[in-house]
Amino acid sequence: MITRRLLVFLIGLNLILVGVIIVQQLRRAEHGVDITGSSAQAADARTGSVLAHDPSENPIVKAANTVSPAVVAVGGTVSRVSYYMDPFFEGFYWPYFARPAEQRIEVPFLGSGVLIDDGGHIVTNVHVVEEVVSPFATLSDGRRISAKLLDKDNRVDVALLQADIKKAPFAVMGDSDALQPGEWVLAIGNPFGEAIPDPRPTVTVGVVSALHRNYKATDVEHERIYLDMIQTDAAINPGNSGGPLVNIRGEIVGINTFIVSRSGGSVGIGFAIPINRVKAVVDEILRHGRVRNYAMDFDVLDLTPQVVRQLRIPAKTRGAVVRVIYDQKGPAAKAGLEVGDIIIQADQLSIIARNDLLNYFLSLHVGAQIEFKILRDGKEKLLRYTIEEYKSK
Fold it and tell me: Which residues of 354-365 are buried (b: 16+ CB within 10 A; e: fewer)?
């Protein structure tokens, strides 16, 4: 009798243990724990919690995948000077008797660019294409397409190319005025140049470090004015010039242009031209076929201590004083500007010295309106100045 009771007890205990094990396994399966090996884990990766870690769901990856097909490597034929020995002087030390010869060579990776519409328009920097004779672009899939330079704005370092392609992949231009410091951005381009001849762009990630940075190029031959630049710590290297700076929504917010570095490598101080300024150049070229010439029809002086004494104004006054208006029927006169007015602000830019105003003026285009804040007789006044095309008489 005791043996039978013990047997019944053991059977019942085993049934209870089996039930507990089954319940535990079911609970583990519900929480995504592998219960049968790699096949269950693969199934869970398709349908379970692993989906939350899918890289394609990452907004930075999405932005890169959206814009990268529109990024191109810009190349072309350039002139290079080489030296050869005149046969008459072959027996002499060659550096003194070598003769220069101009050669045209094809360089496929001069910099980067980005397609901005399906019509094949490519935005890049002027310094990428300024020495190019016959430009072309290589898409990320390896296709090479010929292009021509429509026009360029040397002062702001923006060039517009027309590529021979239909239904081109393109990226959308965003609003650089909406950027905030600390916002995530991606710098996309071809940083290797000729070192690694691969048209597929690379992606670096960082944040907007600062906005409204002003920087003037020191190269006298290629003097350029970089105003309201976007500063970023996303790595920008020489081959990235002309490529897009992109927000996490996959919109172009700037054109990567240069870095500040003692070593020549990226150290987290890169600068991009705001896309809203680029839009103005593109619109000017597409509407008028060129960047139209204009000139400031008035001139200003710095508020030196001597000028301040002559004007009898407070010594702490900052700005630029109008000394002459050249055309009494020009935009300055139309705006109501008068000799003796002190310009203290142009749009959102505070004018501290004459060059502040000149540089800002030269960064704009025909048709742009500038809101001047001036001091006249000790009182502030707002004037609206419209830039007009310069036509020689």
Answer: bebbbbbbbbbb
